[in-house]
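Researcher: I've got a protein sequence and the SMILES for zinc ion. Could you write out the 3D structure of the bound complex as structure tokens? I'd like something to compare against our soaking experiments later this week.
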Amino acid sequence: MGAAGTRALLERLIAFDTTSRLSNRALIDFVAAYLGQHGVTARVLPSPDGAKANLFATIGAGESGGVMLSGHTDVVPVDGQEWATDPFALTERQGRLYGRGAADMKSFIAVVLALVPDMARRRLSTPIHIALSYDEEVGCKGVGGLIEQFGAGAPRPRLAIVGEPTEMQVVDAHKSQRGFRTDVTGLEAHSSATHVGVNAVAAAANLIVRLGNMGEDLQAEAMRDPRFDPPYSTVHVGVIHGGTARNIIPRQCHFEWECRGLPGFDSETVLHRFTDEAEREVLAPMRDRHAGAAIATQVVSWVPALAADGDNPAQHLALKLAGSNRTFAVSYTTEAGLFQAAGVPTVICGPGNIREAHRPNEFIELSQIAACEAFLGRMLDHLAG
Ligand SMILES: [Zn+2]
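Model: Sure. Here is the predicted complex with zinc ion in place.
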């Protein structure tokens, strides 16, 4: 197969607009049919509402153990981005392939799929599992339904490689990410009657300043890990909405924020400090004036950290295949943390550069695809031998 097969598959995968807000079913059905052509039965695992699906397929002898090659099928939106080419039509220019998902992470999936005929032919004594998820880009929300199947409807892999773009370096650690939404409720009044209303926007501003202080405290904390950039846990506010008109004291305001924690950092401590301060310092004075005032915070997403572990068999295998003895840590989150939390030793290793992800004119170098093909080819030799 080699590069030609990979490229044709990548072209097909990129042509499916699998922006997270849309269904990925057409792509999953295409992959299931492709696997079927090579005698591989795929388990298609629909989302609770049936609009999306994960896919899990096993190739080789024995159902248990084995190596799971994992990728997400969804991509981030192209809305508002200036693209020089059609983001859903694979375009080659000067040694690069352009398209949404080229780096993050349809090239890895294409390389894996192009190797399926080889995998099926090789009579692997150790099985290879292909795991494809949905809704990774919106907080790793889809893969949970697949993980639930480990040791139940599907075999439990012995180890996993997540093919997010690392330029084929072996990544053994990433931060955790906990996303929150805080809703502030005050009391409407004419804007001249500031002594009557309770201003939800002002209260939210106060809360956001407190989150900023917490971020500064984390930066000053002793808990640092120089492998990460930045080497400390972070707090960030990304969205705020509030108020209706300048001359109305706003009743509602909400904001969305997150905490990214070093492995071993418990981001619930940030939530506890926040809700504590919110109740004592912000809500109490609001309630003095209006009993119905409220501040409510909910967790909207949670991805555990991937923690480095010297005994990780996924790391040993990936380093051997990469011909390297060095691992790296990254600050973005992936499904690797969830696999590790489910007891499957995992590393991240895939083609392309994360800098190209999520941007207009996303691309992958052809040399990166070749490097991934070589890596997985060595894996096949290893598992067949
Ligand atoms: Zn990704």
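Model: The pocket of zinc ion is lined by residues 72, 104-105, 136, 164 (CB under 6 Å). The two ends are 20 Å apart (CA to CA).
Researcher: Great, I'll pass this along to the crystallography team.
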